[in-house]
Design goal:
Keywords: Membrane, Transmembrane, Transmembrane helix. By secondary structure, this protein is mainly alpha-helical. It folds into two domains: 129 residues; 200 residues, Leucine-rich Repeat Variant (Alpha Horseshoe), CATH 1.25.10. Helix 3 runs antiparallel to helix 5, helix 10 runs antiparallel to helix 11 and helix 12 runs antiparallel to helix 13.
């Protein structure tokens, strides 16, 4: 319930100050007169209060712009239409009470000043929300891409894990806020980072975290939101990383974990995508990934990987029969391919016993 309210605030936040101002205007319209001493106090307080708020917001905005370490940050955050308009409204809200005090416009001045002040105060929520979006999506994603590739290059595991987690959180946040383009960008960055981490044994944990908390969860949530391109990218990322991890001829628990999480992610994405008939491509990539990971797996983890892949395909097969029966033959073909691998393993084991 809260997520729904939060999404609406982020979408329609700029209507909030307008509605609040209209409500306050309706209330104040009932006034017939106002005491002059009270009016002076109110006007003085409003002017000083708005000036203090404007200074605080402007300072925060400058600090945020400096944190981004981008030369264009000022253009994106401060010198944009919404920020300029908001600052102009704040300026009007500061000046109007002073003019009212100067020319003794007590009644009209108080009403106008209160309405403008209400608008300014309630506009802070959508303004800061917009700044947060800019920081996360337009600037943060780019910075994190550079940083995660740099720390992977120098094999800094701790910082790489931190950057991977941040990217994953941004991706999940973007899914909730319906920013499919951002989600797809994050998925592509995580895929690149995961594949690069596989090149170093000391960074296998980074790849595992990317698959587990990043691609898998973002992919499933993307399917739930109906993001076709993002879901397809997530399925491809899990397929590619899982396939490359399965081929590495090293007995390592993290590599096995990467394969297992990739299989589970592909299974969940494929299953959920089947409920949406328009996501047939996603289902195809999920099935393909399960087969690729299972058949290419190193012998040290071949059997458990095959078991999980078969379970994943059976899960998809059950959903296919219900939601997309025309694809049943494709799933059966993939199952037969994996069963062939299982048969070879069993026959090899029997030969060893004999």
């Amino acid at each position: 319930m809260w997520n729904s309210i939060e999404d609406k605030l982020k979408r329609y936040g700029w209507f909030l100050p307008i509605i609040a101002s209209i409500v306050v205007f309706c209330i104040l319209s009932r006034l017939s007169s106002i005491d002059h001493e009270n009016a002076r106090y109110i006007l003085s307080a409003i002017s000083q209060g708005l000036a203090a708020i404007l200074a605080l917001v402007f300072t925060i905005t400058l600090v945020v712009a400096q944190m981004t370490r981008k030369y264009t940050a000022m253009d994106k955050i401060i010198f944009r239409p919404r920020t300029i308009i908001l600052m102009l409204v704040f300026g009007i809200g500061i000046i109007v009470p002073l003019l009212a005090l100067t020319f003794d416009w007590f009644f009209i001045g108080v009403i106008a000043s209160i309405i403008i002040a209400v608008f300014c105060v309630f506009s802070l929520l959508p303004f800061l929300t917009d700044v947060n979006r800019l920081l996360k999506y337009e600037i943060g994603v780019g910075n994190l891409f550079e940083e995660i590739m740099e720390v992977i290059a120098v094999k800094d595991k701790a910082r790489a894990l931190n950057r991977a987690d941040e990217l994953s959180e941004i991706g999940k946040s973007a899914v909730k806020e319906f920013h499919e383009g951002v989600v797809e960008s994050v998925i592509m960055i995580l895929t690149d980072a995961g594949e690069n981490s596989l090149k170093e044994r000391s960074l296998y944990h980074v790849t595992y975290r990317i698959v587990w908390r990043g691609l898998k969860e973002i992919g499933v949530e993307s399917v739930d939101k109906g993001f076709k391109d993002a879901s397809l990218s997530a399925a491809r990322g899990l397929r590619d990383i899982g396939y490359k991890a399965s081929k590495i001829e090293v007995k390592n628990g993290l590599l096995a974990g990467i394969c297992f999480e990739s299989i589970e992610g592909l299974r969940d994405i494929g299953y959920k995508a089947l409920r949406d008939g328009a996501m047939e491509n996603v289902v195809g990539v999920a099935q393909e990934g399960l087969v690729m990971i299972a058949t290419a797996s190193d012998k040290s983890r071949k059997w458990p990987v095959l078991q999980r892949a078969v379970k994943g395909l059976w899960c998809i097969a059950a959903a296919t029969a219900e939601y997309m029966p025309e694809r049943v033959n494709v799933v059966i073909r993939d199952l037969k391919e994996i069963e062939k691998e299982i048969g070879e393993i069993r026959s090899g084991s029997m030969r060893k016993i004999v």
